[in-house]
């Protein structure tokens, strides 16, 4: 049996949720651009895909940090701020806002 299996499983489920979020945001942004038929600069597609890649990278870093904390013999405290969580949440909110602005601008 894997030590702390429930914690590791929850950590990986959270990682997969961040991946789904990144894929959904990038997919909605790129699909909205293509369906409207508006001429969009190439940099906007690259920026959308790049920001999704940043979300995936930060989610991976978060998963690795939490994996080390779970495996540590020291008791975990809930008082510390996990910086990847803060950055991921801010980036996802920014992507949602930018996608909304883009959709409003095109229509």
Summarize the structure.
This protein is mainly alpha-helical. 80% of the residues lie in helices and 0% in strands.
Descriptive overview:
The chain has about 110 residues and is mainly alpha-helical. Helices cover about 80% and strands about 0% of the residues. The protein contains 3 helices and no strands. The radius of gyration is 17 Å and the shape is elongated. It is found in: Endomembrane system. It is a multi-pass membrane protein.
Question: How would the blueprint of this fold be written?
Answer:
Layout lengths: L4 H32 L5 H30 L11 H24 L1
Helix pairs in contact: 1-2, 1-3, 2-3
Q: What number is the mean pLDDT?
A: 80
Query: Approximately what portion of the residues adopt beta-strand conformation?
Result: under 5%
Biggest sheet record? none
| Low confidence ranges | none
The N- and C-terminal alpha carbons lie at a distance of 55 Å
Structural class: mainly alpha
- List how many beta strands DSSP finds: 0
3D shape: elongated
The Cα radius of gyration reads 17 Å
Number of domains: 2
Helical segment count: 3
Q: What portion of residues is helical?
A: over 70%
Q: What is the string of SSEs from the N terminus onward?
A: HHH
Membrane topology: Multi-pass membrane protein
Domain DUF202: 6-64
Main location: membrane
Organism: Thioclava pacifica DSM 10166
């Amino acid at each position: 049996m894997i030590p702390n299996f429930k914690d590791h499983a929850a950590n990986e489920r959270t990682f997969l949720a961040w991946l789904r979020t990144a894929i959904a945001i990038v997919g909605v942004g790129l699909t909205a651009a293509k369906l409207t038929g508006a001429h969009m600069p190439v940099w906007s597609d690259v920026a959308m895909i790049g920001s999704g890649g940043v979300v995936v990278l930060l989610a991976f870093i978060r998963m690795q940090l939490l994996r080390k904390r779970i495996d540590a013999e020291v008791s975990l405290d809930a008082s510390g701020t996990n910086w990847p969580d803060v950055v991921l949440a801010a980036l996802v909110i920014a992507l949602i806002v930018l996608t909304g602005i883009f959709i409003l601008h095109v229509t």
